[in-house]
């Protein structure tokens, strides 16, 4: 099928060499770690989509509920004639509900997962022929140049899904500072942030009964086999996820359930039983905590929407 005229794709996808370098560096330190951005190859993005449908995983459906319930108010806050930039373009439903009320001239989705990005951005270009879709496959945790957009359009950055929770407290300031520059005067940041809550609820969300989160976590090992030719025994690693209340974060690990070894790129990494690889942190915030953090880098909180159960929040910020 030919691509629609209002669609373009910029491919700044990280090379396999970047994955290899970060895996080797992360396995060489103690405790061992692999950054969560490497979950999202084609299979990982599919597994993540499956997570969002699990009954225990409340964030996605709660955020969609907030965007729908407050769509008109959100559109008024964000203003019309905007260029809409989406970081980590995830769920189609979220962005479509925003596009329906915002009707921007341009939509710029950024995502690290190429196939996922292309499929979703192409679908949007076809369904919204008046919107210019400029998709960029990129690791947005590093500095890069945005594709050109009309200078007069005021900019809205949409950062859904509480992906901001993946950043360490120190790094989150750098990220928000960079986003503030992208938003600019007159622009807005609309960001979804998962809330602190009963640990039992959090633990359940990252330990779904169907085992989808476990498969998502272990996919990074499969990816090492597929892309780096690693030799390892997947079944020697089990999924561990728990809420660390003092640090306010979910931690995910791949823990060796027996002594085992990973060979990759000519190097050998031995694991004692119980030793693990730290694969993800997902920080949770209270609305006030997040507003204070954003204020540190110059954001003003205009409005925060939360659901009745206080599970999830959507913040509208300006610089
Ligand atoms: C996409 C980072 C927001 O932390 O909830 C879901 C990723 N990891 N289940 C999250 C994830 C395990 C998700 N974020």
TrEMBL record:
Q: What InterPro entries does the database record attribute to this sequence?
A: EgtD, EgtD_Methyltrsf_superfamily, MeTrfase_dom, MeTrfase_EgtD-like, SAM-dependent_MTases_sf
Q: Which UniProt keywords apply?
A: Methyltransferase, Transferase
Q: Which residues does the UniProt record annotate as the domain Histidine-specific methyltransferase SAM-dependent?
A: 19-318
Query: Biological process GO annotation list?
Result: methylation
Q: What is its EC number?
A: 2.1.1.44
Q: Name one Pfam family in it.
A: Methyltransf_33
Annotated Gene3D superfamilies: Vaccinia Virus protein VP39 (3.40.50.150)
GO function term, MF aspect, one: L-histidine N(alpha)-methyltransferase activity
Query: What is the name listed in the Swiss-Prot or TrEMBL entry for this protein?
Result: L-histidine N(Alpha)-methyltransferase
What are the leading ranks of the lineage? Bacteria, Pseudomonadati, Pseudomonadota, Betaproteobacteria, Rhodocyclales
């Amino acid at each position: 099928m030919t691509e629609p005229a209002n669609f373009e794709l910029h491919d700044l996808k990280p090379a396999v060499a970047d994955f290899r370098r970060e895996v080797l560096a992360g396995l060489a330190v103690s405790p061992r770690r692999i950054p969560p951005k490497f979950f999202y190859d084609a299979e990982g993005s599919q597994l993540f989509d499956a997570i969002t449908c699990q009954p225990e995983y409340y964030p996605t459906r709660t955020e969609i509920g907030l965007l729908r319930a407050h769509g008109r108010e959100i559109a008024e806050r964000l203003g019309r004639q905007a260029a809409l930039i989406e970081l980590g373009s995830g769920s189609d439903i979220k962005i479509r509900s925003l596009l329906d009320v915002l009707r921007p001239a341009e939509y710029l989705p950024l995502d690290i997962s190429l196939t996922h990005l292309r499929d979703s951005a192409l679908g949007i270009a076809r369904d919204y022929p008046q919107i210019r879709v400029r998709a960029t496959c990129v690791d947005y945790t590093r500095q890069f140049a945005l594709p050109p957009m009309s200078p007069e359009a005021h900019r809205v950055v949409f950062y859904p899904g509480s992906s901001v929770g993946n950043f360490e407290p120190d790094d989150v300031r750098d990220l928000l500072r960079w986003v503030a520059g992208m938003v600019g005067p007159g622009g807005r940041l609309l960001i979804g942030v998962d809330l602190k809550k009963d640990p039992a609820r959090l633990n359940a969300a990252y330990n779904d009964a169907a085992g989808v989160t476990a498969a998502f976590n272990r996919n990074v090992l499969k990816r090492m086999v597929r892309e780096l030719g690693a030799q390892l025994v997947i079944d020697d690693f089990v999924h561990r996820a728990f809420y660390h209340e003092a640090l306010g974060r979910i931690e995910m690990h791949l823990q060796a359930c027996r002594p085992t070894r990973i060979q990759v790129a000519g190097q050998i990494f031995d694991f004692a039983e119980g030793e693990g690889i730290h694969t993800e942190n997902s920080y949770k915030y209270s609305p006030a905590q997040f507003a204070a953090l954003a204020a540190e880098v110059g954001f003003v909180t205009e409005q925060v929407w939360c659901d009745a159960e206080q599970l999830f929040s959507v913040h509208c910020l300006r610089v």
